């Protein structure tokens, strides 16, 4: 059975207000041959309607305004407002042109791809960017794009590839992801794992606030229980003792829904140990991994190598978010957004995953993820050579 995961790469600049996010297509990991597959992006020229002097709409798919070589990509983004509607199988965008001095449809440029949309207009002869959506909320069918001018509005109609997915907005953003997450997660919890306890906590807090989940920190729970810091605990009893205690905390939390759990990083963290993931699989796990990768392809290769090696427990995570730099104090929300974006890709690739997580919990988190065994299966028999059917 295939377990899909997504990889995101974030680059933090020295300017705390600037973050570059690169999110890859869905990456599928297939056992046991360790093969990978990627979803390709195939751009198509959209079709559109223009209106003649009689007000009738005519179809044309060869309009020169759709040329991708018009050299306007560096123009600034306009502050014009727009209206957005989700009409089940399609989405409708209405861009206000009242202040743009657009004289005809020939003054409008619409460039739609599967995952992006750019709208520009000639305002008194000068090109202005009205919409620059580098990442649509989900994929569309570019060849079925329609646009027309209705009074002082530009109406753009995009055909969804997935008509069942509700779009909160035209663009993928922190706001649209937090609003749209409930229909995807269906109450499933999220576990944040990675080398840095502090980063795990910061990102988990941002996620919980954004999607309305309850935040938990295993570090805080353990320190409140033991009345000592994690560092003191490690010095007095060793990292194995801390890991065992955190494992017990995770077992208790595994039956909860709508939670975001920040786990311990470092040697004392349960998630670092491949044999301690039984209860982490109760929710969607996100691995926050610092990297030296300079581009998307390098991040993909690094993630593939980690999963194939399987040397770290982190390689069991459902989602990998790669990030550069260590100044996460100013970028926790950017990391949280990358987590939601990657989780969205993961779940859209297999919409049964939230239900499987729920089933895994109901059967007692027996450690048989993702190949869930039938009721009555005994985890102690996993190594006896018997291979029962999976659910």
Automatic annotation (TrEMBL):
InterPro entries per record: CS_dom, HSP20-like_chaperone, P-loop_NTPase, Shikimate/glucono_kinase
GO cellular component: cytosol
A GO BP entry: response to stress
Pfam families named among the record's database cross-references: CS (PF04969), SKI (PF01202)
All copies of domain CS, residue ranges: 77-178
Family: Belongs to the shikimate kinase family.
This protein's name: CS domain-containing protein
Organism: Cannabis sativa
